[in-house]
Design goal:
single chain; alpha+beta; Endonuclease, Chain A; 4 strands; disordered N terminus
Amino acid sequence: MRGNKIKRKNIEKSRRLRKDETEAEKKLWSILRNRQFNGVKFRRQFSIGNYILDFYTPEYRVGIEADGGQHFDAQGVEKDEIRKRDLYKIGVDLLRFGDHEILTNINGVCEAIQETLKKKADTPSSQSSPPWVEEIRGKK
């Protein structure tokens, strides 16, 4: 990979996944889309390297996964750990939420996302911060 640019693959598969989203993905996307969540731009079914993230904010390099049942068996957990490590190596932090959690505790999910974005905004390596960062940091 050259510089900070992340190579994108799987464009057709990403498009197909957008059409076949789960109820949990629909619910979370209804909150994250169109910069409704603290003004942060999220992308849906975003391809990074060999992986497709359910949601991704390039501004903060944070991916969010809405996990169905297949992620909770031994093989799914192992694959998810490898995926998380691979993404971390290229500077992407990954948050995982079970579908049930998204559907029944969306406020808790949003709080966890906001806390992660706040931590990323407070990190000295974060490049330019969007306007809402000052508000989250408590300086407004």
